[in-house]
Amino acid sequence: MTLIKFNPAKEFFRERMMPSEINSLFDSFFNEGLGKFERNVFFTPRADVIEKEENFEVHLALPGLKKDEISIDIEKNVLSISGERKLKNENKEDKYHMVENFYGKFSRKFTLPENIDQTKIDAQFTDGILTVVLPKQELKQNTTKVVIK
Known about the structure:
Layout lengths: L7 H10 L2 H13 L2 H7 L5 E5 L3 E7 L8 E6 L2 E8 L18 E8 L10 E5 L2 E7 L14
Antiparallel strand pairs: 1-2, 2-7, 3-4, 4-5, 6-7
């Protein structure tokens, strides 16, 4: 048996001061969290980053896009992948009763390690998955011996 401490002030405030609609709104917000809100408003493609012996691979799930709708840039050791997934409304008379897919502009940024050979980066787009291969290179040791005088 579990004992629950009775708090009369809390019960009074909850039942009398707050209408049940507002109370349920707060409960659903805090119990479901911001995740539900984010999913319905922002399109953020999911990513997997895998390290292999000879390279890193970034896999981005971009269903419904074409390769010419995706942009890949590298600036100051930051890999940027961006684009836009648009809602294709071909018939203006159609009424959408529910839209659960994600649409809108997106941008994902990944800071690259120092040992990436940026001249040999390769990207492929197959079946809605963008794969960016980031080959590793040997880091040159920049060490200098300082003589104390």
